[in-house]
Amino acid sequence: MTIMTDDSCLITLLFVDDQVLIANDKNNADYMFRKVSTEYEKWGLKINMDKTEYLRIGDQEDPKLEIRHIKETKEFKYLGSIISQEEASTKDTQSRLQQGQKCISILNSLLWSSKIKLKTKMTIYRTIVEPIMTYGSECWQLTAKDKKN
């Protein structure tokens, strides 16, 4: 979804009731928040300020958004992926690996059963475990350390 301004196009990610506004400076962030709030109010919707936060990436100064007091965060989860201030995707990849390990431990009795064929076990792994571990991997920015792990 995009928000048009006089001289630019501002970006927002929207999935069901989760929304991310992407702005390159304080003025655009303020504008986008006001615009989204106004549009939501027309539909009788209200932004839950207890769940609203902002993530500043890069070495920019703290924007101190003027609209309302919005708390700053160092990371947040959006559609299951961890978005953080770090340039690399280390936290997200670690989280995915942990989720995969948890899934394997849940499926442990199936995967080690002598009553189930190897081909079936491989299918279970490829259709259940692998997607959990690789979700969002197209966007990962890996460090050399991440690649070793």
From TrEMBL:
<dbReference type="Pfam" id="PF00078">
    <property type="entry name" value="RVT_1"/>
</dbReference>
<dbReference type="InterPro" id="IPR043502">
    <property type="entry name" value="DNA/RNA_pol_sf"/>
</dbReference>
<dbReference type="GO" id="GO:0071897">
    <property type="term" value="P:DNA biosynthetic process"/>
</dbReference>
<feature type="domain" description="Reverse transcriptase">
    <location>
        <begin position="1"/>
        <end position="83"/>
    </location>
</feature>
<protein>
    <recommendedName>
        <fullName>Reverse transcriptase domain-containing protein</fullName>
    </recommendedName>
</protein>
<dbReference type="InterPro" id="IPR000477">
    <property type="entry name" value="RT_dom"/>
</dbReference>
